[in-house]
Structure formats: C-alpha cells, structure tokens
What we know:
The complex is a heterodimer.
Chain A: H1 6-44, H2 50-54, E1 57-58, E2 63-64, H3 67-98, H4 103-117, H5 120-134, H6 141-165, H7 169-177, H8 182-211, H9 214-217, H10 244-253, H11 261-290
Antiparallel strand pairs in A: 1-2
Helix pairs in contact in A: 1-11, 3-6, 3-8, 3-10, 4-6, 5-6, 6-8, 7-8, 8-11, 10-11
Chain B: H1 6-23, H2 25-45, H3 51-56, E1 60-61, E2 69-70, H4 73-104, H5 107-122, H6 125-144, H7 152-176, H8 180-188, H9 193-204, H10 206-222, H11 225-230, H12 248-255, H13 264-296
Antiparallel strand pairs in B: 1-2
Helix pairs in contact in B: 2-13, 4-7, 4-10, 5-7, 6-7, 7-10, 10-13, 12-13
Amino acid sequence: MFKATPLTRRKAYAERAAQAVFLAMTLTMVVPLVVIVAYLFVQAWPILSLDFLLTVPTHGMRAGGIWSPLLGTLYLVALSLVVATPIGVLAAVFLNEYARESWVTRVINLAVVNLAGVPSIVHALFGLGAFVLFAHMGKSILAASLTLAIMTLPVIIASTKEALSSVPMAFREACWNVGATRWQTIWHVVLPNSISGILTGVILQVSRAAGETAPIMFTGAVFYKAIPEGTLFAYGLFDQCMALSMHLFTISTQVPDLPKALPYGAAVVLLGVVLIVNALAIVLRIHLRSRKKW
Amino acid sequence: MQTRRRWEILVEAAIESLIRLCGVSAILFVFGIFFFVFREGAGFLFSGFNAREFFTSPEWYPTSQSHVRYGVLALIAGTASVTALAMAIAVPFGVGAAIFVSEFCGPRWKEALKITIELLAAIPSVVWGFIGLTVMNPLIMWGFGVPIGLTVLNGGVVLALMSVPIIVSIGEDAIRAVPDSYREAALALGVTRWQLVYRVLLPAAKNGLLAAVLLGVGRAAGETMAVLMATGHAVKIPTSVMDSVRTLTATIAAELGEAPVHSEHYQVLFIIGILLFSITFVVNLTADLVVRGIKRR
C-alpha cells in the first residue's frame, strides 16, 4: 500500500540533491577558513614561543618579539572597555527599563544602528578631529582608547538590551509589589540576572577592539616605540603606543627583508587572541544559559 | 513604615539623570562624528568647491607640484567594483548557507556550524588583509598567470569571506522568523524541503534577506584595512577584475598620515570621510526600514 511511486522516488532524489548543494555552499565558505588558518599557523610555527611574546622588537622590527605591541593592545582594550561598558549598560537600561516606546526611543535605536555601521576609518577621522585635535589630547593612548570606546559602544548597548529584556517581567513586578523603587529593582534584581548576556557582549567587543587597526592608526598607535621589557607599566596615559593590529600591518607592508615567519607569527598571535577571547564568550554563554533558573 | 532618607531620594534622582544622559549618548555620538569630521574638512567645501569636477573626474592628484586635482570617480569606482564582486560571491553562498543551517541541518551540526560562522566573523580585518597579501596574492598569480595578485579579485574574495557571516546570521534569523503555519501548510500539501524553501520560505523571508544583503554591502563598502592591503595602489577605474584599484576607505588610510594637518589635501580626505559616512548611513537606514517592515507584519 505504501510502495514508493516514481513521483515519490523523484521527490526524494530532488530533496537529497538540494541538501547536497546547500551543504556544498556552506562548506565552500567554511573549509577555506580552516585551511587558511592552518596555513598561517604552519608558517608561523618556527617563530612561536614564549620568548616571542615577551621580548620587544629589535633591529628595525626584523627580529625579536612582539611584547610592546601586545602590551599596547592590552592597555587600549582595557581602557576602552572601562569607558564603553558603563555608558553602554546604562544606555541599554534607559532604553529597556525607563523609556516608553515613543519617537525618542525610535531615534535612539536608529542612532545605535547607524553608529554600529560607521566605517572604521570614519571612526579614525572622528577620533583625530575630536580627541587628538579638539580636546588637545594629542596622539595618545587616551585618544585611541576613547575612539575604540565609541566604536564598541553600539554593540554593547544592543547586547545589554537583549539581556535585560530576557529577564521576565514578573521579577520586576514582584520587586515593585514590595515597594522597591525602579533603580533598586534594576540594581538588585534585573542587572544580576542579566549579567551573563552583558558579559558575553562585552567580551565579544574585547576581541573586536583588539583587532581594529584604522581607529588607532591616527589617534595613538605608532610604528615603533621603545619600552622596557618585563614590566606591565611601561606606557603612560598620554604616551603613544604600539599595538598588535598596527604592528601586523606595518611589518607586512612597510618593512622589507623580514624573516619569513615573523609576520605570520604576529598574525597568528593576533588571531589567537581574538579567537580565544571569542571562544571564552561562547563557552560563558553556553555555561550560563544552562544555569538559568527560569 | 520607614520613609526613605532624603539623600537616598536625591541619589536615586541623580542616577536616573545619568541613565537618561547615557540613553541619549548614542544620538550625541552620531551627531558628534558627523560634526567633527565635517569640521576638519569644511575648509575645502567653502573655498571654490566644484562638485561636478569632484564627483565625476577620475583624476586624483592631491600631491602634484604643478596641478592639484581632486577627482574621486576612480576611488568610487574602486569601492563599487570590489563591493559588487564581493556581494556577487557572498550573497548566493551566504543565503545558501543560511538555508542550509536553518532547514537542512541536523541539530548536532547546527550549533557547531553557527559557532564556526561566528568565529569567521571575529577575524580582524587586518588579518584578512594579511591573508589577501600572503595567501591570495600568490594564489592568483599562480592560478591566472598575472604579474600582480593585488587586484579587484583579491579584494573581492576577501571581502566576500568577511561579509558572509553577517548575511548568514541575519538571513538565518529571517528564515526562522517565517511563521510555522506556512511550513505546516506546505508540508500538509506534500512538498519536498527544496520546494518548501524555494516556493514558500524565500518569498516570505525576502525582506529579511534583503536587509541581510544591505548590511553586508554596508560592511563591505566601509571596510578599510583588508582592501588597503589586498587591492593594490592604482588609482584608476578598473576595466577587469585583474586590475588594481584603490577604494575610498583605503585612500584615506593611506594618505592621511602624510597630509599636513589642515592642508587642503587633509581637508579633502575628511570630506571623503563624510561621503563614506553618508553612504553607510543611507544603507543602514534602508536596511533598518526594511527590517521594521517585517516586524510590523
């Protein structure tokens, strides 16, 4: 009674063919990535070592390690997140907890979307015009970090908003019923329950801030700067600094006669930092999602 | 009942004002970006600016000793050609991958694939530029027998790989947003999964897919470091994918360091920045309106 008719067989065949085609399309995007990353890693292997991470570049950056760019990136990312996270979280709190659905919130949402889409070189121009020149910070870690902060702000706002809106309304209503004010509710109940989403968003922006080159190129990162090895406090707030992303750019385009593995080493370290931070965010997200009590 | 102390009320009011200020900060920053970039470039606009020559002349010679010319047509052509090629590759593959992840994929592989695509999105643009320089460059020279591998093709392929994750994730959201009742109705009529995708899901999700493509275009047009390193340095209108070009973004990045502060060259670069900002603003606005059109349905 349920013998396969020619029509059914043809449909089953078409379905399997379609599945194969779409699988091929997906793999065409994914496989080159894996191959390229493996190739970079293999090329960088001769030079990767703890020494590479902890010594400064020497001989016009043709030898030595990447300690100064690594430390510079650390400073830039940390400072930019210290600035961007409070503003971003509070902005999301405003949008989700305080404001009513009106033209104001629509304009703010539009502004956030547009801020997220600004090209990175335009962020660089803004940082140059506003922080370096207008605010007289000069090319400095401060100016570069503030530029990075504005760049990472929209995504922090968006992911915090999502985290806040996933907290059930019942939690807030319970607090209001016992007489808590709006801010008390937010501080003691809503924020602690959405901390996983907020953290995930912030960690993802760490990897983005570490990888960006254009915004820091004209606002505080330099080609070369001599710093002492072995100390974490080598840069001052108004100093210029080296940065990992900028370092990769300069040694692969401006410095001739490099040992072959050196730029691959810098690329692999930068890629490693970014991928490890992202993996951390993903692991955190999965772990905290399983611990949710509602 | 214990009433609240006065300072507690004041502190809460202060925090609320701070929150409101942060809330409007995004608007302030968008205006701020436009204002400060315009401020640095305004001098060029108010001293004999010939709009027709600026936009339609392909001759970009800002550092010429004898005859300085600022025509951005070649740069616009550079941005347009690389973006168009990138989208021509990324859209079919991205939409195909989005369809695969949402309809054809088993649950175990789904999470792994989504994580892989998320990691693909996280790769910094300077690393993509490095890949263009060191991996694609020799590949193109060997595969096509051309002397230089830093071309529209190189930049287009790299940009495509960069834009695919956006198209896949937003496209997948759009396909998943199609109501289940559509799927159930189609399955009740006995369609195969391919027919479901082609005749029901794609037409229903076309707004979201369009938004995904627009956001991909915005990302590709605004990309700086990858195209700076991968497309070469020739300021001319490309006639084939094997030509080197310069995009608007790469021009700013390459020349800003050498232009004396507040010189005419410097101001022109900021005006190009305003041009870029306007382009991405329009693209993002359109994408947002398209997405809002879906949500209202």
